[in-house]
Amino acid sequence: MQITRYVALALKARICLYEGTFRKYHANDPSTGKPWTTDEAETYLRAAVSACNELMTSKKYSLVSDPANVSTQYRKLFTSESVFTQEVIWARVYNAELNATHNLNSNFIVQQYGSYSLTKQFINTYLNLDGSRFTDKPGYEKTAFIDEFENRDYRLMQTVRYPGYTRKNNGTDTRYAPDFGYCVTGYQPIKWVIDDTSLDSNTSPCSTSIPIIRYAEILLTYAEAKCELDEFDETVWNETIKPLRERAGVDGTMPATADPYMIEYFLGTVTDNALLEIRRERGCELILENVRWDDDMRCIHIHIHEQVAFFAIKRHIDISVSGLVESVERLAGVSLFVGGELVIRIDECNRFGFGNIAVPCIVDVVAHGDSAR
């Protein structure tokens, strides 16, 4: 897609939200290792609000939202060859006739090319359709997989394999359960997957378009920047979070109290009701869209510090508590999770002699419960 003024505004909003919140939540300038010489957090946050406001008032974009298609419309944004320009501001367009293709399917199906697994902690953040919290239900942690999707946010069943999920196999609709040879948690992503097994090879030409920035992100950026500026109210909620939830079939009423589960999820670093819900929504809406790592870094969701080192990892790790990783070699494996979502996929790169797998990792983290999963 052509880069337009609107693309520039959307990118500006993304960058300014990052810079504004990074300055707010980090005491030191990473370029010097010393305290910031000037407080520019508000300047960047207001620039983010301004860019979002210009996009929102232009009426150029809106959410793809049809109640009749509530169970499919979200995922179609990521599995269609045509770009939904109503919502997608910037995308990479592919075309099989022009031999412009990708092999994204193989990354989410074939273990050799990927092993993306979402965690139970993250899946728990999806709300019920009536707007209530799944984690408020007594015994929610014992809910069977087959029952987890019942009356839940429709984005959940459009993000991971669910009971009854089907794919074309030799032209026939065939049911597929989570593949534990690929996905270790059982929550196997389908958000970007074309449901045709003939396209699963790394040589299969996929020509679905890849959204890079969507209007949904603009609404979330506007909501978060306003909240960080202490200017968030129900009017802002109704302009931003409410339509996103309603598009997913969820009651969009603003909750009156903070969610204890979400407070614990962010290790007590966030207690404001509105900000917790904005971060919940950002996770559910933008999962696997290449923003999660930046979100964790800018807001220090899990007390991660700026120091980065290369460590070999030995298993799938859900990083949800802070602490120093003392033994690199004992953590040798494949994937790294932060805040319940995969943020680093370990690819082959022969480093430190721990076999052929290595990953950029943060020094100040340890696996949940001090054990790899």
What's the main sheet like?
4 strands, mixed
Our Rg estimate from Cα atoms comes to 21 Å
Overall spatial form: globular
The CA-CA distance between the termini, in Å, is: 41 Å
Spans where pLDDT lies below 50 across 5 or more residues: 302-373
Can you write the helix and strand succession as a string?
Answer: HEEHHEHHEEEHHHHHHEEEEEE
Mean pLDDT: 83
> Would you tell me the structural class of the helices and strands?
alpha+beta
Task: Write a concise keyword list for the protein shown above.
373 residues, disordered C terminus, globular, alpha+beta, 4-stranded mixed beta sheet, 12 strands
What does this molecule look like?
- With 373 residues, this protein is an alpha+beta fold.
- Helix content is 30%, strand content 13%.
- It contains eleven helices and twelve strands.
- It has helices at 5-25, 41-58, 73-79, 104-109, 120-123, 215-228, 234-239, 241-247, 260-265, 273-286, 292-299; strands spanning 28-29, 34-35, 88-92, 166-169, 172-175, 210-214, 308-311, 317-322, 335-338, 341-345, 359-362, 365-367.
- It has a four-stranded mixed beta sheet. Strands 1-2 form a two-stranded antiparallel ribbon.
- It starts with a helix and ends in a 6-residue tail after the last strand.
- The model is unreliable at 302-373 (pLDDT under 50).
